[in-house]
Amino acid sequence: MGQRISRAKQQVKTSGMPFRMPPAEERADRLCAVLQVLYLIFNEGYTATSGAAAQRSELTGEAIRLTRLVHRLLPDDGEVAGLLALMLLTDARSPARTGPDGEMIPLAEQDRSRWNQASIAEGVALVTDALSRTLGPYQLQAAIAAVHDEAARAEDTDWAQILLLYGLLMRMSDNPMVTLNNAVAAAMVHGPQAGLALLEGLDADKRMAEHHRLDAVRAHLLEMAGDHQAARSSYRTAARRTTSLPEQRYLEARAARLTGNSS
Questions:
Q1: Taking the domain 158-263, which CATH number applies?
Q2: DSSP label at 49?
Q3: Per-residue b or e along 35-49, where b marks 16 or more CB atoms closer than 10 Å to that residue's CB
Q4: Which of 3, 14, 128, 209 has its CA 20 to 30 A from that of 226?
Q5: Which residue has the higher pLDDT, 8 or 108?
């Protein structure tokens, strides 16, 4: 990556192209690309896709820093504010996401007293203001994160509101991860069978068919439904498909916990 950046800098230097803001007709597309890259950097830092670490704080911190710079330049852009809010509200949970031995702790089991309340307050203020403007995907994701973060206990989470927000988000985005999260919200509101039914459509989606998170969510919903044998199998499939060592250990532990339970 360092070599690519060096080559790009050299190409800009030799071309003689001036460094300036793009014309108005190109600005929206370029901003969209910038926000997408920042979002991907943050996600890779928050949930590392491979290796021994569950998260990489240097990436989440840099993504937040850069998004703050964009927000400073474009304070009236609702999606920029929405993305910054989403990052802050998500990153606020980082202190409670892993245990003393590095083991992953799911959202419902986290010690919420360890969440960063200053980040939550800033994120909620940002998204509350941003939602008064033209609505976009980052604002909706930030609103979902805010609902989670404002719940004092997992059982206090307003899943009906989250399901509504995911419904709006699905109209704007063809992202299969949104569909996956919507299935979880549907299960929490209408029961696990409702969520499992929504997962069936993702089995035919090439972007998700081999993704470990589809198997992990299916396992969770099957466990909720009481089908421990099928849940155990899906947890183990998910563990085989992920390249993250902490996720592998977490998923294998979930499967082992179900060993001996009848379906």
A1: 1.25.40.10
A2: S
A3: beebbebbbbbbbbe
A4: 209
A5: 108
**Through-space distance between the first and last CA atoms of the chain, rounded to whole angstroms:** 48
d(Cα 251, Cα 236) in Å, to the nearest integer?
7
Mean pLDDT of 68-89: 96
Q: What is the C-alpha separation between 121 and 124, in angstroms, rounded?
A: 5
pTM of the entire predicted model = 0.89
* CA–CA dist 64, 143 (Å, integer): 17
Residue 106, Ramachandran bin (φ over 0: left; ψ between -120 and 50: alpha; else beta): beta
Contact 42, 88 (CB under 8 A): no
Chain-wide mean pLDDT for the chain? 92
Check: CB of residue 129 under 8 Å from CB of residue 81: yes
User: How far is Cα 183 from Cα 174, in angstroms, rounded to an integer?
Assistant: 14
User: What is the distance between the alpha carbons of residues 114 and 125, in angstroms, rounded to a whole number?
Assistant: 20
Spans of all domains in the chain: 30-152, 158-263
